[in-house]
Amino acid sequence: MDVKLRERSIEEYRPIIHNEVDTIRKLAEPLKGMKILHVNATAYGGGVAEILHNLVPLMKSVGLDAKWRVIEAPDEFFNVTKKFHNTLQGAEIEISDEEWDFYEKVCQENIGLIQDEEVIVIHDPQPAAVRKYVDSNDKKWIWRCHIDLSTPNKKIWERFSHYLKGYDKLVFHLEEYFPEDWKEKSIAFPPSIDPLSEKNRDLDEDTIKSVLERLEIDSTRPLITVVARFDPWKDLFSAIDVYRLVKKEIPEVQLAIVSAMATDDPEGWFFYEKVLRYAGIDEDIKFCTNLKGVGNIEVNAIQRATTVALHTATREGFGLVISEALYKKVPVVARPVGGVKIQVKHGENGYLAWEKEKLAEYVIKLIKDEELRKRMGENGKKTVVENFIITVHLKNYLKTFLDLLR
Predict the structure, then answer these.
(1) Cα end-to-end distance, the chain, whole Å
(2) pLDDT at 224
(3) What percent helix, strand, coil does the chain show, rounded to 5?
(4) Which of 122, 224, 258, 265 reaches 20 to 30 Å from 369, CA-CA?
(5) CA distance 190 to 122
(6) What is the mean pLDDT of residues 263-267?
(7) Angle at 172 between CA 49 and CA 63, to 5 degrees
(8) What is the pLDDT of residues 151-170, one digit of tens each?
């Protein structure tokens, strides 16, 4: 299924990145007219879809013939691929032969997605096996992995890695995610946020106030915000624990748990219910999801009204929600996992700690010190503009395509 995309222009970013626009245009010149295809599991929900909605139109704007298609699959398929997601990050879960066969069957049924494109970028485990069933030597294949593969469940990885044999390049967020036996084919560059998207563009005070009122968030009181999917690795139970520790010292504090229920994550509903029960009847814990009409503008407004952003994940592919908060000049307190470590510079734009007590201590420190928050907020925005916005991401892809063609 083709995903319909709005037009974007690289020139829209000139006020942010200035002459870097000309550098990107020059880099793209040898690739003009090249047919590029991105394939993933869902057009909505989750960071990959969010990136592609903005990245693919930007590829088109610099002259590439870029498209994005989504695999068609029943719900049971996503139950299996969620097991891949968890086991490839180290979870001890069994995957039956029937589930492997079913996974391969659905991928084989989706080979029609691949047409006359010259470079195919397959995102994440869900469509990875499509490559196995496409017999073509005239295309270049990239597997873009958005999860941490550094310590996978070895039994699952041994079998899953056979699907990757036909790929020319594997792209990860960080070098530390490279699988030991695939380093020669692997490269690393981070994902990105789009500063001009609905989720990140500037909002006026009236819009922010209106969103907060609708979601019953008090704009006059401190707000801790966690943006994360309902997923065992995000450890939202610890986020609630940290909030409760902070509340002992700052009774007026509120916690917003912001999430989108993604269409490719049936397990999310189970964890949503568990987290709801854990939160209990505390009216200062606000669940802000798409079930309540929370979309990109609402997430943007909540983040801009946030005093301190909190991230308690125990494993993280990258954690773009960190860059979203930093771009809005909100300091981040987080566990030092995955890509979080390269976004949060301890003591400069936020704080890193593993223990809940230490996380709470840093949150309290930031809530009480407005000058510190302001200084860290300025540093945070600078970090993101230099490293984690979509034009940097586009440039990295262009370099990868040029390298493949050589």
Answers:
(1) 31
(2) 98
(3) 50, 15, 35
(4) 258
(5) 16
(6) 66
(7) 60
(8) 899 999 999 999 999 999 99
Per-residue pLDDT at 265: 66
Helix (H) or strand (E) holding 110: none
pTM across the whole model: 0.83
Nearest to 301 by CA among 384, 236, 219: 219
User: What distance in Å separates the CA atoms of residue 311 and residue 350, rounded to the nearest whole number?
Assistant: 11
The residue behind tokens 């029943």 is 74
Structure tokens, 319 = 């954690």
Rg for the chain, CA atoms, rounded: 21
Segment 209-238, tens digit of pLDDT:
999 999 999 999 999 999 998 888 899 999
Structure token digits, residue 185: 């084919």
Q: Which two tokens stand for residue 298?
A: 């609402």
Is residue 136's pLDDT more than 80? no
HSE toward the beta carbon, residue 392, CA cutoff 13 A: 17
- The encoded tokens of residue 17 equal 């990145």
Do 153 and 281 meet the contact criterion of CB atoms below 8 Å apart?
A: no
The three-class DSSP label of residue 98 is helix
